[in-house]
Amino acid sequence: SQQGEEDPQALSIQEGENATMNCSYKTSINNLQWYRQNSGRGLVHLILIRSNEREKHSGRLRVTLDTSKKSSSLLITASRAADTASYFCATHSIIQGAQKLVFGQGTRLTINP
Amino acid sequence: DTGVSQDPRHKITKRGQNVTFRCDPISEHNRLYWYRQTLGQGPEFLTYFQNEAQLEKSRLLSDRFSAERPKGSFSTLEIQRTEQGDSAMYLCASSSLDRGSYEQYFGPGTRLTVT
Fold first, then answer.
1. If chain B, 115 residues long, is cut into consecutive pieces of 10 residues, what is the mean pLDDT of each piece?
2. Is B109 exposed, middle or buried (0-12, 13-18, 19+ CB in 10 A)?
3. Contact A100 B43 (CB under 8 A)
4. Which of A51, A72, A98, B109 is the S-S candidate for B89 at Cβ 3.0 to 4.6 Å?
5. What is the mean pLDDT of chain B?
6. Is residue A94's pLDDT more than 60?
7. What share of chain A in percent tops pLDDT 90?
8. Are B106 and A43 an interchain contact pair (Cβ–Cβ within 8 Å)?
9. Given A31, A44, A97, which is nearest B102 (Cβ)?
10. Of A31, A42, A45, the CB nearest to B107
11. Residues of B near A (CB-CB distance < 8 A)?
12. pLDDT tens for residues A20-58?
């Protein structure tokens, strides 16, 4: 079963605007990861944040983690048409199993030129 | 190309037939994972290998599903007596054993359609 829930399920913005996606989860985690998936393709790892970290940056990506609220957010700044994709959060937890990732349902992001 | 590869990319089969998918992980990765993804959903974990040992299986993996990784390199996923509910994208991923390296690298997937 899915652990994470992404919000919103779909997001459409204009190129150049910032996009924010949220993820909530249920169990204790070791780390939380964000992946991108272009239509009909495999997933690409974007960024990983550990349970003892609160914020992490990578290029135009900013991820926050609030373990007290069991939530994370992904911010994409200065969006581009090429950012159009589905974005998934995935949690890694010893409780869930030694190595598997548990994915949310994803946010479909559309960047309009 | 040194990424994860999967074969075939697409498979159409009739209900009741058996199908087998192959995954070739990144060469230095000793962990290999299979996930299933249906339309509009996130991937769901099926099974995981460390080298040739199958260490974890999901309850989703019914007795019609079997996965192998005989020499700790490539892996196969077989579905026997396919059902329409098996139609999905089957994703393979690999990762390194290095401590703290939890990122998984995904292949392009095999899309299965059962008619």
1. 90 98 93 94 93 89 93 94 97 82 90 98
2. buried
3. no
4. B109
5. 92
6. yes
7. 75
8. yes
9. A31
10. A42
11. 4, 31, 33, 35, 40-45, 48, 50, 55-56, 58, 89, 91, 93, 95, 102-109, 111
12. 999 999 888 889 999 999 988 889 999 999 999 999 999
> What residues of chain A lie within 8 A of the CB of B44, using their CB?
2, 103
Is A30 buried (19+), middle (13-18) or exposed (0-12) by CB count in 10 A?
A: middle
Contact predicate A23/A109, CB 8 Å? no
B86 min Cα distance to partner chain A (Å): 16
pLDDT attached to residue A2: 45
Question: Mean pLDDT over all residues of chain A?
Answer: 91
- Whose tokens are 């190309």? That residue is B1
Q: How far apart are CA B55 and CA A97, in angstroms?
A: 10
pLDDT in the model for residue A32: 94
Q: What type of residue is B55?
A: L
* Residue of chain B whose Cα is closest to the Cα of A41: B108
Residues B62 and B80: their CA atoms lie apart, in Å, by 10
A-chain residues near B93 (CB < 8 A): 43
Predicted local distance difference test score (pLDDT) of residue A88 = 96
Whole-number Å distance between alpha carbons of A42 and B34:
12
pLDDT at position B81 is 97
Residue A94 token pair: 């010893």
Which residues have CB under 8 Å from B88's CB, separation 6+? Answer: B36, B37, B38, B111, B112
